[in-house]
Design goal:
Blueprint: H1 2-7, H2 22-45, H3 53-68, H4 90-93, H5 95-118, H6 121-142
Helix pairs in contact: 2-3, 2-6, 3-5, 5-6
């Protein structure tokens, strides 16, 4: 579980939004919101906070909503590629692969939202890991290394 949290960028440093404007700032804020929501669920699953199905569901809904906006937040424009962006050029060089990974994140996040409504911690944990893997798969090639 810890490896998934770290790979998804949870528990690491905050995104560097300094100098980001427009769509780049919007997507960085969306990524931060997803990271924060993943941290809420992660802390519950690790027993650091009391499990609350409603709170887990709200966090999952946040992840799903931002994941659904992902492809639109990376238009192939000069503004989108500004220096403050943490995206690699591969986002625009391999858009089909980027979009496929974004779709996989949406599917995993929607499923996390659905299983969170049931309150089954084992199912939530399993789907939480699937979301983390989807995040990591995209970050592997499409986010600059820190």
């Amino acid at each position: 579980m810890t490896a998934v949290l770290l790979a998804a960028g949870i528990g690491g440093g905050a995104f560097a939004h300094q100098g980001a404007t427009g769509i780049v700032k919007e997507r960085m804020e969306a990524m931060s919101a997803m990271k924060d929501a993943m941290a809420v669920v992660g802390r519950m699953l690790k027993g650091e906070t009391t499990f609350n199905a409603n709170e887990a569901g709200r966090a999952a809904d946040t992840i799903a909503a931002h994941a659904d906006d992902m492809k639109a937040q990376f238009p192939d424009t000069p503004e989108s590629r500004q220096k403050a962006s943490e995206a690699t050029p591969l986002v625009w060089q391999e858009p089909e692969r980027f979009n496929r990974l974004a779709d996989e994140l949406v599917a995993a996040a929607v499923m996390l939202s659905q299983v969170s409504a049931d309150g089954e911690t084992a199912a939530i944990a399993s789907q939480f890991q699937a979301v983390g893997r989807a995040c990591s798969a995209c970050h592997e090639d499409f986010r600059q290394k820190k």
